[in-house]
Amino acid sequence: MLLTKGVRIIELFEPNFFGTVLNHNITVIENGPSGGLMIIDTGLPGYLNMIENGLKSFGYSIEDISDIVITHYHIDHSGNAEEIRKLSKAKVYAHELEVPYLSKNEQSFNLFYEDVKNELKVSKEEFESTLKRINSMEFTPVNVDVKLKGGEELGDFKVLHVPGHTQGHIALYNGEILIVGDAVKNVRGVISPPFRFFCWDYVKAVNSFKLLLSMRFKYLIPFHGDIVFNF
Ligand SMILES: [Zn+2]
Ligand SMILES: [Zn+2]
């Protein structure tokens, strides 16, 4: 889908996410800092073909990617980053605080049913099967070429450090478009901070959420849920 000039979204779907289907919005921007496409977040392991098909529908291929930005280390954002890096020779960018998690060859979430049930209507069976699915995925560690701190410019976009969901979570902003990863979600018409049970520090996550929503934007692109239009 073409959102606005030079900015496109590949929407992928993750079934069996605590009893619902979760969407993933991968943003593809022309004129990345290294001259080709800049892709923001990369979906779950095994989604590479779907990303390839999405790019093909725009007239592009994996090899056209020159820059890969990972908003945070979670597997649904970093899943295909290393494969894309190898195929395209693109540079990978992530906040320095995410690098230790991205370089491990395992990601495992230790969640508790009670915490998840407080925020989502989910049965014990759905909870267990989702956790098992997430924790059994094969994660390929990611080599980060450029470690960020926040404040850098990537093409037209500025890097914002918005901690809370994870320690080194980043967003990208060009004055019009705000790409927020998991710092904001917009699911079923409700704009909200990330799930508490998935947060490194929920108080910081809420502060980052408020900061992002207080900014001027035309398009806010969450990784999960619907794009927020604000004209
Ligand atoms: Zn996340
Ligand atoms: Zn996510």
Topology of helices and strands:
Blueprint: E1 2-4, E2 7-17, E3 20-29, E4 37-40, H1 48-57, E5 65-69, H2 75-78, H3 81-88, E6 91-95, H4 99-102, H5 113-119, H6 124-135, E7 146-148, E8 153-154, E9 157-161, E10 170-173, E11 177-181, E12 185-187, E13 190-192, H7 202-213, E14 219-222, E15 228-229
Parallel strand pairs: 4-5, 5-6, 6-7, 11-14
Antiparallel strand pairs: 1-2, 2-3, 3-4, 8-9, 9-10, 10-11, 12-13, 14-15
The protein binds zinc ion (2 copies).
Structural class by secondary-structure content:
alpha/beta
Quaternary state of this entry equals: single chain
CATH architecture: 4-Layer Sandwich
Low-confidence stretches: none
Please compute the radius of gyration using only Cα atoms.
Answer: 16 Å
- CATH level-4 homologous superfamily: Ribonuclease Z/Hydroxyacylglutathione hydrolase-like
CATH class category label: Alpha Beta
Ligands (ions, cofactors included): zinc ion
Number of strands: 15
Number of domains: 1
Mean pLDDT: 95
* Strand portion: 25-35%
Order of helices and strands: EEEEHEHHEHHHEEEEEEEHEE
Number of helices: 7
Into which percent range does the helicity of residues fall? 10-25%
Strand order across the biggest sheet? 1-2-3-4-5-6-7
Gross morphology is globular
Here the CATH topology equals Metallo-beta-lactamase, Chain A
